[in-house]
Design brief:
By secondary structure, the chain is α+β, with helices and mostly antiparallel strands. It is built from eight helices and nine strands. The protein is globular, with a radius of gyration of 23 Å. It binds flavin mononucleotide. The site of flavin mononucleotide (FMN) has 9 residues, from loops.
C-alpha cells in the first residue's frame, strides 16, 4: 500500500512538472546576449537616459568637427549614438527617437570602422533589438573618403555612421512624389539627434552630404532600393 502511494506521488509530481512547462508554455530561460550572438547579432549595452549636458548646452556647443584623435570609440558610445539616431523609445508602438512620416521608418543606419571590443568591419543597426548585425568585414573608410571628393575626415575618423533611405517604404503610403522629400526630412532629424548626442558625449562629428551616390552605394554593397543620404564621421575631439 505504502509503495503504491509512493509511486503514485512520484508520477503525480512528474506530471505537474511537465504540465507546468507544457500548459504554461515556459521555455527554458535563455541568456539574451547569447541568443543574439547565436542569431549573428551583437547586443549593444543599454543606452543611458541621463547626462550632465542639457539639451540647451548641446545645442549651444554643437559645431561641425572634422579633426579627431587617433583613438577608437567604445561600445557604450556607439550604443548611445545609434540609439540617438533610430533607437526605439516606445516599444509597444515601435516609435523611435526621431519622428517619421506615418511611423514608416524608411531609414537604415550603418556603422563602419574601429570600435573597442568589435571586429573591424561594417554593421547594420537593428533598432528592434538595439543590436548590430555584421554585414561586411572590411574597413572601407579610405574608399568612402574618395567617393566623397577626398573628404579626409571620413578616413581619419575612428567610425562613420552612414544613413540610407528607402523611398519605396514611404511611397507605399504617400506616393512617389512626396516620398523623397519626407525621407530627406527624416534623415535631417536623425542626424541632428546624432550631432547633439555626440556633443553630450564630448565627441565630434559632421554631416557629410557631398559624395557620389552610386560610388558610395557600390563601396558599401547596399541593396538597390537603399540610397545613401548622409555620412557622419565621429571621433574624439582633438
Ligand atoms: C545637407 C548638408 C550637407 C553637408 N555636407 C557637408 C559635406 O559634404 N562636408 C562637410 O564637411 N560638411 C558638410 N556639411 C556641414 C556644413 O558645412 C556645416 O553645417 C556648416 O559649415 C555650418 O557649420 P556648423 O555645423 O559647425 O554650424 C553639410 C551640412 C548639411 C546641412
Amino acid at each position: 500500500m505504502f509503495k503504491k502511494v509512493f509511486i503514485l506521488t512520484i508520477i503525480l509530481m512528474g506530471l505537474i512538472l511537465v504540465g507546468d512547462r507544457v500548459l504554461f508554455f515556459r521555455p527554458e530561460p535563455v541568456n539574451l546576449i547569447e541568443q543574439n550572438f547565436l542569431q549573428g547579432e551583437i547586443s549593444l549595452p543599454q543606452p543611458r537616459h541621463q547626462s550632465q549636458t542639457s539639451v540647451e548646452e548641446a545645442l549651444l556647443k554643437r559645431r561641425s568637427v572634422r579633426e579627431y584623435r587617433d583613438e577608437p570609440l567604445n561600445l557604450q558610445e556607439i550604443s548611445q549614438l545609434l540609439w540617438a539616431a533610430q533607437g526605439i523609445t516606445d516599444p509597444k508602438r515601435g516609435f523611435r527617437t526621431a519622428p517619421s512620416a506615418g511611423a514608416l521608418y524608411p531609414l537604415r543606419v550603418y556603422l563602419m570602422g574601429e570600435v573597442e571590443g568589435l571586429e573591424i568591419g561594417m554593421y547594420r543597426y537593428n533598432p528592434d533589438n538595439h543590436s548590430l548585425i555584421k554585414v561586411g568585414d572590411k574597413d572601407l573608410k579610405r574608399e568612402l573618403a574618395k567617393a566623397a571628393f577626398g573628404q579626409i575626415w571620413i578616413e581619419k575618423a575612428p567610425v562613420n555612421i552612414i544613413f540610407t533611405g528607402n523611398y519605396e517604404i514611404t511611397a507605399r503610403r504617400y506616393g512617389r512624389e512626396k516620398a523623397p522629400r519626407y525621407v530627406y526630412m527624416e534623415v535631417g532629424h536623425a542626424a541632428q539627434n546624432v550631432h547633439l548626442q555626440a556633443e553630450s558625449l564630448n565627441l565630434g562629428t559632421v554631416v557629410v552630404g557631398g559624395f557620389e551616390i552610386e560610388k558610395v552605394r557600390e563601396i558599401l554593397g547596399l541593396p538597390a532600393e537603399e540610397e545613401p543620404l548622409y555620412i557622419m564621421p565621429v571621433g574624439r575631439k582633438k
